[in-house]
Amino acid sequence: MDTETRRRARGSLGARGSLAFLIVCAVGFAAPAAAQWRELAPGLDLAEFPAEEGGPSAIRVVRADPVRWEPVLLCASAPGQGTLRSTGEWCEAEGLAAAVNASMYQKDYLTSTAHLRHDGHVNNSYVSKDNTVLLFDPLDDADPPLTLLDRTCEDLDAAAARYRTAVQGIRMVSCRGNNVWSPQDRRASVACLGVDGAGRLLLIHCRAELSVHDLTARLLALPLDLRRCQYAEGGKQAQLSVRAGGVSEDWTGRMRGIFGQDVSVSGWPVPNVVGLRARRN
User: Fold this and answer.
1) By three-state DSSP, how is residue 214 classified?
2) Which residues of 184-215 are buried (b: 16+ CB within 10 A; e: fewer)?
């Protein structure tokens, strides 16, 4: 992601932006698709929605109750790992019910572009200017099993000290429920992470090439009860896999050939994923 894209992503909506967002929701997404959730297992659901009104491409969403399903961060840089895998391969190697990109990564193909750590393994200690951080695996069971923190509303240092895992990303939906990604021309497939009003984790993938601003508006218009959301990856690397409830599917980012045609590719090997495992009672 280039500097200009990141600058635009950090912009906030003023009065005009808020009005424009309401117009988009009212006109462009006036009739959101009804929720059609398929239960894969207790506390784990899968849904598919049109990416655009009347369009063939879909947004896939895995919804997980963190009381029943444990979020896990897996990194190729961690001891005992060392191998880049597609999200499907991560699922199969680690016994995951689902997996999605954790974050963008640097040119070494290992290190996240922002802060990323799990239980003693620090992939990247640098805390960037990005405004959202997904925290899970609390030190104290009295704390929520996960939270998607907005740094403009909450104290990161205080909250992060209470969780073993931190995944920093670019904010798409703020703590106030606003689309904070500025409009832009760039369009790509996207993977992202969200939290709904019940505190459930949402793993989201859109193969259709939308701008992130338009995708965010679409997600807010869908019956997801989306409260917060952060960008994980874009382009051909964006992917989501499911291995649960009789479903074995891999949804990948769109890749185009030299003449602009779609090219079929299996999942792109990525270094860092957020996955889901059934909790042991």
Assistant:
1) helix
2) eebebbbbbbbbbeeebbbbbbbbbbbbbbbb
Closest CA to 11 of 21, 26, 22: 21
Secondary structure E strands in the chain: 38-41, 44-50, 58-64, 69-75, 98-101, 116-118, 121-124, 132-138, 146-150, 163-173, 188-196, 201-210, 226-234, 239-244, 247-252, 255-256, 262-263, 272-278
Per-residue pLDDT of 103-138, as tens digits, reads: 999 999 999 999 999 999 999 999 999 999 999 999
Neighbours of 129 (CB within 10 A): 11
Beta-ladder partners of 133:
149, 168
Asked if 226 contacts 219 with a C-beta cutoff of 8 angstroms, the reply is yes
DSSP state of 155: -
Predicted confidence (pLDDT) per residue in 5-31, tens digit: 444 444 443 433 443 433 334 434 444
- 3 state DSSP class of 199: coil
Q: Please state whether 209 falls in left (phi above 0), alpha (psi between -120 and 50) or beta.
A: beta
What's the DSSP call for residue 236?
G
Higher pLDDT among residues 166 and 24, named by residue: 166
Q: Structurally, how many domains does the chain consist of? A: 1
Helix (H) or strand (E) holding 22: helix 15-23
Cα separation, 157 vs 255, in Å, equals: 39
Spatial CB neighbours of 72, under 8 Å, sequence gap ≥ 6: 94, 96, 118, 274, 275, 276, 277
Domain that holds residue 7: 3-278
Sole residue written with tokens 């009672």: 281
